[in-house]
Amino acid sequence: MEEMKLEANKELNILKRSSSQIGSLQWLKKNLFSSWSNVLLTIISAVVTGYILFNTFQFIFTADWSVIAVNFRLLMIGQFPVAEIWRVWTILGVLTVLLGLSWGLWKGSMAHVAVSIGAIMLIMVAMPFIQMSTRLILGGNIVLLLLTFFIGTKLPKLKIPVIAVWLLYIPLTIFILNGFGVLAPVSSNIWGGFLLTLLIASVAIVISFPIGLLLALGRRSSLPVIKYFCVIYIEFIRGIPLITVLFIGQLMIPLFLGSGVEISNVLRAMIGMTLFSAAYLAENIRGGLQSLPRGQYEAAQALGLNKTYMMTFVILPQAIRAVIPACVGQFISIFKDTSLVAIVSLTDLLGMGQKLVANPEFLGKQMEVFVFVGFVYFIFCYLMSHVSRRLEVSLGAGHR
Amino acid sequence: MESVFAVEKLTTPLEEREDIVTVKGLNKWFGDLHVLKNVNLSVKQGEVVVVLGPSGSGKSTFIRTLNALEEFQDGKIIVDGINLTNDLRNIEEIRKETGMVFQSFNLFPHMTILKNISLAPIWVRKWKKQKAEQIALELLERVGIPEQANKYPGQLSGGQQQRVAIARALAMRPKIMLFDEPTSALDPEMVKEVLDVMKRLAESGMTMLVVTHEMGFARQVADRIVLFDHGEIIESGSPEQIFDNPQHERTKLFLAQIL
Fold it and tell me: Which UniProt keywords apply (chain B) (predicted)?
């Protein structure tokens, strides 16, 4: 009796072991080769995938990436004067310090942003075609990031100053880049490359969000003047293509301002992108406001909270949290749409790519240039969507 | 002895006290629908008034007009000496003095229990954060769930959430508490814990207007019962009068249906 039990146990063990050994084989059989039609589909898709992968790798390893290596600086910062390049490094350094401190102070989502930016710098350091000086500066930035991270964890008092510098960061950047009489002037007409892409996108994102918020609140206002102004603005902007808005910006803004005031092309593009994106954000945020049950408004009112407190503490935090994915989708969309400024004769990353391709020296190198440009866009868009997912998780605590 | 909910308990008999809520000739329409028809009611300080009536009789609408969650078209409402008009400042003053508990709790899901309770005292009453949180913790103790202070509403049971909602309303130190079917959304086993808190609150001397279907609570706790039907008050009186010797035909019909 006992022996039989033992025997049975042994057999069971063997069965168990073999099942874990042939687990993957069985999985293949069950999921990919369960019937004739399945086998056929599996083979066809394997061949197609293999073909695409093979050609992709063949392209990557046989392509002539020297066009990127030679023009790397142009692609990144356009025709910014070489003598003034320290300004770009300065603003990158300030960004690194801010990121590092925020990472140490707040952890959470800031950690993901900081680590991702650090990883991008690390990848760039490893690129074979980067100049040694650039490599050293980037490496220094990585060290700076880690150093400020430790400072941040040790000094929680820095929270308020860090927020203040974040708020000032974009004006500071524009000031350093332009000079405005204090430093040697570098006209915004020669700003270009990925630097320009980032500048236009961040200005548009940062400024359009509060405008969109006001528009969304205005559209639900009980005052008809405010309400209809917001409705007309939102519907008008959503009814015309971005390119049209950009052209209007280029042609109409100088017309409105008269001949006395000169506004640079870059600023006009920024204004156009901001106004355009604000209308879409307003609709996203309005969706969030409408998703809240009426009981939340009533509970806040019944407690005696006035409208400002009710909105600030009860309604907006919930509404915005509900629409983070939609808003980040809009941010990503703005980021990619900055490539349209090439049409109004600005040379952003894509515009610089086009100029390179048009240069007879780099004839037939379109593939390399555009694959690289696409890759840069992808990295940053993916970073944004990754951070937004983390943000949802970390803000979702207790929500349900 | 200090009352548990920091209400000033009066010892004078009910009849001799002053009115804290006065409603005169109140009329309200939803479009063509006449939902409140010439309602007159006054509530004494420390009185517990239970409002009964079939669903759709206008009883919830009635108590929601008292803190201006619903507008009214005709009549007069005076709460704690403040005349309720369209003036936003008047409305906010009245809301400060009246706490409200809803059927669906309406806690703020993105804040901890402690923040839920201390939000209005900090921003409306302008109390120091420390004082407001101290009071919030005390109130949580009184409603029997001090250990939940740092959780979020979604982590609590329905009965616990409703007790937090009561604590949140009480944190403003209101003079009047309005309850709009506070136990209707609860599972049966959680009704008692909420009613117990309300009973203790009534004993401590709080002025309360309660819309409910809990007949046991009405009989035991109410000083006066008011019966609503088709937007008007058809009968009012002590629990004994209403339950044991109803006068109006529709009162008898209503009681027959639910008892």
Answer: ATP-binding, Nucleotide-binding, Transport
Q: Are residues A156 and A285 in the same domain?
A: no
Instruction: Please give the Cα distance from A80 to A93 (Å, whole number).
Output: 17
Question: Are residues A128 and A80 part of one domain?
Answer: yes
Task: Please tell me the total count of domains within chain A.
Answer: 2
Residue of B61, B60, B100, B93 whose CA lies nearest to B79: B93
By CA distance, what is B95's nearest residue in A?
A304
Among A186, A218, A247, the domain-final residue is A186
The per-residue pLDDT for range A71-127, each reduced to its tens digit, is 888 888 888 888 888 888 999 999 999 999 999 888 877 888 898 889 888 888 887
Residues A180 and A225 in one domain: no
Both A101 and A217 in one domain: the answer is no
Angle at B155 between CA B152 and CA B158, to 5 degrees: 110
Residue of B nearest to A400 (CA): B154
Three-state DSSP state, B104: coil
Mutating which of B87, B89, B106, B179 best tests the A interface, going by the most A Cβ atoms within 10 A? B106
Residue B240 C-alpha, separation from nearest chain A C-alpha, in angstroms? 33
Nearest to B108 by CA among A301, A142, A67, A229: A301
Kindly state whether residue A175 falls inside one of the protein's structural domains: yes
Same domain, A338 and A389: yes
Closest CA of chain B from A233, distance in Å: 30
Q: Which of A186, A211, A243 is the last residue of a domain?
A: A186
Question: Does the interface ipTM go beyond 0.85?
Answer: yes
The domain in which residue A262 lies consists of 193-400
Sign of the C-alpha dihedral computed for residues B201, B203, B208 and B211 taken in this order: positive
pLDDT in tens, B148-188: 999 999 999 999 999 999 999 999 999 999 999 999 999 99
Residues A219, A177 within the same domain = no
Between the two ends of chain B, the Cα-to-Cα distance in Å is 38
pLDDT digits (tens, 9 = 90+) for B31-81: 899 999 999 999 999 999 999 999 889 999 999 999 999 999 999 999 999
- A259, A202: one domain: yes
pLDDT band, very low/low/confident/very high, at A400 (cuts 50, 70, 90): very low
Claim to verify: residue A245 and residue A122 sit in the same structural domain: no
